[in-house]
Design brief:
mainly alpha; 3-stranded antiparallel beta sheet; two-stranded antiparallel ribbon; 9 helices; 9 strands; 62% helix
Length: 280
């Protein structure tokens, strides 16, 4: 009962985290199905927790940092690690995975969405679990933390609170470079455990466009990015905010070029019998 009460307190204290978590569950179930979603969440959460537990005791893989326990009794902890912190890794990794798929999968002309035409993504098992997607996902996962962690370490200036600190602050706005290496390690370990399961699970089939469902995950990635940049500007860290914005704009530009078909739409639709490929 105490755990349930602490979980409810955690939701009340960190509603934004659970909004992102709910968005992840909705987007992932639509794209990859429930069986894959809960496995992805469990693997990535457990991997992140183990790595955080290790790093606060050995410095591996994130480098040395410590949770100060300032919110003990106000939110749920597993050992010395806040629950909300570890679950954030799960939805961020999924969001990075969707961005990587949109950047790497082959495209072809697709169907209209409002005033835009979205390109169709050709998705196959080998393509969505191959080395290019594996490495790019891990990079994008660490890349978004280069916006998140600098503002999180300043949590005493906004509603996160001062919940952790680095004994030896790094050159990137007070964050050690080892922290970003740790994020990449968590991403690679999680995907290395998940991808073999992904290949063995039976193929589900959804009568929906793969591109539109992938864009739900992409929206989660840039929603989290926008939230953290917004907080960064709100606390008056303008240089840090513009630095993060300029870092991510090139990726966003390439992504838009990849998924939006700017050519003139044909006068007729696809020939009968041809249907949008599904993500299965």
């Amino acid at each position: 009962m105490d755990i349930v009460i602490l979980l409810l307190k955690t939701i009340a204290l960190r509603p934004y985290v659970f909004v992102f978590l709910a968005a992840f569950l909705f987007a992932a179930v639509r794209l990859i199905g429930w069986r894959r979603t809960w496995r992805f969440w469990l693997i990535s959460w457990f991997t992140a927790f183990v790595c955080e537990y290790s790093s606060t005791r050995t410095g591996i893989p994130f480098g040395w940092y410590f949770y100060n326990g300032s919110t003990v009794g106000q939110e749920l902890y597993f050992s010395n690690v806040p629950f909300m912190d570890s679950i954030s890794f799960s939805f961020l990794l999924y969001a990075a995975y969707c961005v990587a798929l949109c950047l790497l999968l082959p495209t072809e002309r697709g169907s209209s969405l409002c005033v835009f035409r979205l390109k169709r993504l050709r998705v196959e098992s080998e393509a969505r679990t191959g080395w290019p997607v594996f490495l790019l996902t891990a990079f994008l996962f660490a890349f978004i933390d280069m916006v998140i962690d600098p503002v999180a370490v300043r949590g005493d200036r906004w509603f996160l609170g001062k919940i952790y600190y680095y004994p030896d602050p790094g050159v990137h706005f007070g964050v050690p470079f080892a922290n970003y290496v740790g994020w990449a390690v968590v991403g690679m370990l999680s995907l290395a455990l998940y991808f073999p399961l992904e290949r063995r699970l039976p193929m589900p089939s959804f009568p929906v466009s793969p591109t539109s469902n992938l864009l739900l995950g992409v929206g989660l990635y840039y929603g989290v990015l926008a939230f953290n940049l917004g907080v960064t500007f709100w606390i008056g860290e303008w240089f840090m905010g513009f630095s993060g914005l300029l870092m991510h704009l090139p990726v966003l530009a390439v992504l838009l070029f990849r998924v939006i078909d700017l050519r003139q739409a044909p006068s007729s639709s696809y020939p009968s019998g041809i249907r949008s490929e599904e993500f299965v």
